[in-house]
Amino acid sequence: MYCRHCATELAEKAVACTKCGRRPYDGTKFCPNCGKETQEGAVICTSCGVALKAGGGTFAGDKSPVVAGILNWLWSGVGNIYLGQKTKGVVFCVITAFFIIFDIVTCSLGAIFHVPYMIVMIIDAVLLANRIGRGESIAEWKFF
Length: 144
Prior knowledge:
The chain is built from four helices and no strands. It has helices at residues 65-74, 78-82, 86-105, 111-133. Helix 1 packs antiparallel against helix 4 (111-133) and helix 3 (86-105) runs antiparallel to helix 4 (111-133).
């Protein structure tokens, strides 16, 4: 990851730039993915194609972590569809349907497996939404 203000290379989880002291995504001069200079107001980096988040504003591709988490809490997989992972979302919607049928058939004994699955799916959606919010692109089957 690179500071958007001064292009200093930073650790992936850095909360402030070690050179200029700003938050890594506060600037607009450089790409956070490749560190190349970007055009003012650009929505993607012309060098690597990553989505840019301009100066603390929101990029149209931003997805709310809260919405993604709630959707996966209501029906696991829907949050992934909301995040753009359509194939992964549909697969996990089918798995969720299986768990619900299993819960009904076993008089909620299936909850032993269903509840941990739901928790993992909620965490997955929230963390992926945060990555999208930072301007990262996520692959179709990317987790966390």
